[in-house]
């Protein structure tokens, strides 16, 4: 088995983390029981590009245990945990990643993960898909399809589909109800605040927290920041989302107006240069900047560097940019995903749902042939994942009686 990691000797530490996570992932355990005898992925080759931490490891090992040959690259240099990579290798998953890898290493690892000629892709940010279409097109005939987990990745896939260049089917796990209603809102909400607290040891209560973007992730972070006593200011480009933020009790302002007032700035838009030179020039001394969008482009680091006289690591995960006028701006996690660069990502129970969707999508692609394009997660799979979660909590749902079902179908009173 080919692999490239930091230190295989770290495996025992990674195994402990994986055991801890698995005990709080009841839906994945139910799927393991459901599919173990059937081995629906037997003969399948899967390439994944995901955040290589304990929860992800539970998914990758299960894919392997259900018959697939699994190769993985880490989707973020700072979220890759070297002990998890080692544990994955010990469990038969071929891994190409290390914590702190350079950009050049990252893309070389992506190429290595694809070199096994996959049938199915499991992506986080669409870098595997983009690489296949741009550099490794000889792999296209052998790919049955894949799944994408993030809003940013789905945005890229929609662009490819609209241009008519997406050459195989991709399932948008991100758009499943089980994903965006819970992972994006409750997962991002808790894990972003976790990253800030772990990295800075600072108080949130009483501060102005500026949240750029009021999608599902922005909603979740606003909810958690407000619950911790912060005054939340939302910036938006969409009038409906702006009005929703206002109705939810938050102040709505432009970034130009919020820049001079914020104490903590968090970007969750999926766009580029959301916070840039003209905003840095207005900010108070000592502000915190964090990004929870997939790529590290939302906070314009070149502008910040150009305005600065020095940069130093003030704490692990905190870069302090001292501006030429003496003000200090603290950037968390190099502007990468703050919840993964500065913490452990989404809570275990939330990722249990998202990874169950990834697993079921892989099984669906192994069993079905689809035309190229972007697809929703089949409704039956989305519903079954949530039903399994509720069943694990011993929660029973009401069911409609035959009379009620007939009433809902009829237009006659």
UniProtKB/TrEMBL annotation:
It is found in: Cytoplasm. It catalyses: S-adenosyl-L-homocysteine + H2O = L-homocysteine + adenosine. Residues 184-345 form the S-adenosyl-L-homocysteine hydrolase NAD binding domain. CDD domains: SAHH. It holds the Pfam family AdoHcyase_NAD. It comes from the Bacteria. Its EC number is 3.13.2.1. One of its GO terms (biological process) is L-homocysteine biosynthetic process. The keyword Ribosomal protein does not apply. Its cofactor is NAD(+). NAD(+) binds at residues 184, 213-220, 236, 271, 292-294, 339, 346. Keywords: Cytoplasm, Hydrolase, NAD, One-carbon metabolism. It is an enzyme of class 3 (hydrolase). Pathway: Amino-acid biosynthesis; L-homocysteine biosynthesis; L-homocysteine from S-adenosyl-L-homocysteine: step 1/1. Binds 1 NAD(+) per subunit. GO terms for cellular component: cytosol. InterPro entries: Adenosylhomocyst_ase-like_sf, Adenosylhomocysteinase-like, Ado_hCys_hydrolase_NAD-bd, NAD(P)-bd_dom_sf, S-Ado-L-homoCys_hydrolase_CS. Substrate binds at residues 124, 149, 179, 183. Transmembrane segments: none annotated. SUPFAM superfamilies: Formate/glycerate dehydrogenase catalytic domain-like, NAD(P)-binding Rossmann-fold domains. GO terms for molecular function: adenosylhomocysteinase activity. NCBIfam families: ahcY (TIGR00936), PRK05476.2-3 (NF004005). Belongs to the adenosylhomocysteinase family. May play a key role in the regulation of the intracellular concentration of adenosylhomocysteine. This is Adenosylhomocysteinase. The gene is ahcY.
């Amino acid at each position: 088995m080919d692999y490239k990691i930091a230190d295989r000797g770290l495996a025992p530490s990674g195994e402990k983390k994986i055991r801890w996570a698995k005990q709080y992932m009841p839906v994945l355990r139910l799927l393991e029981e459901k599919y173990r005898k059937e081995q629906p992925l037997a003969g399948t080759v899967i390439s994944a590009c995901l955040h290589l931490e304990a929860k992800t490891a539970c998914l990758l090992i299960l894919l392997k245990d259900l018959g697939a040959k699994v190769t993985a690259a880490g989707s973020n240099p700072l979220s890759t945990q070297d002990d998890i990579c080692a544990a994955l290798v010990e469990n038969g998953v071929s891994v190409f990643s290390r914590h702190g890898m350079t950009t050049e290493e990252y893309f070389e690892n992506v190429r290595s993960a694809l070199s096994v000629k996959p049938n199915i892709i499991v992506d986080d940010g669409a870098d595997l898909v983009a690489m296949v279409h741009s550099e490794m097109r000889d792999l296209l005939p052998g790919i049955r399809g894949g799944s994408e987990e993030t809003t940013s990745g789905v945005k890229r896939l929609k662009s490819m589909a609209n241009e008519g260049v997406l050459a195989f089917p991709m399932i948008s796990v991100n758009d499943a109800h089980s994903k965006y209603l819970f992972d994006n809102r409750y997962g991002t909400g808790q894990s972003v605040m976790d990253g800030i607290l772990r990295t800075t040891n600072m108080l949130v209560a009483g501060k102005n927290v500026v949240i750029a973007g009021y999608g599902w992730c922005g909603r979740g972070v606003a909810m958690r920041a407000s619950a911790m006593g912060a005054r939340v200011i939302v910036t938006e480009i969409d009038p409906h989302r702006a009005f929703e933020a206002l109705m939810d009790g938050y102040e709505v302002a432009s970034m130009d107006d919020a820049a001079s007032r914020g104490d903590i700035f968090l970007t969750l838009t999926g766009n580029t240069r959301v916070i840039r030179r003209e905003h840095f020039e207005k900010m108070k001394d000592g502000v915190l900047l964090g990004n929870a969008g997939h790529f590290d482009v939302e906070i314009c680091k070149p502008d910040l560097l150009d305005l600065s006289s020095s940069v130093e690591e003030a704490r692990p995960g905190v870069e302090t940019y001292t501006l030429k006028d003496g003000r200090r701006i603290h950037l968390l996690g190099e502007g990468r995903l703050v919840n993964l660069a500065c913490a452990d990502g989404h809570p275990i129970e939330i990722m249990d749902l998202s990874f169950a969707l990834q697993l079921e999508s892989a099984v669906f692609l192994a069993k079905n042939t689809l035309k190229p394009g972007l697809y929703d997660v089949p409704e039956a799979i989305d519903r079954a994942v949530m039903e399994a979660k509720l069943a694990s909590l011993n929660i029973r749902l009401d069911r409609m009686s035959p009379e009620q079902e007939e009433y809902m179908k009829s237009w006659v009173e």
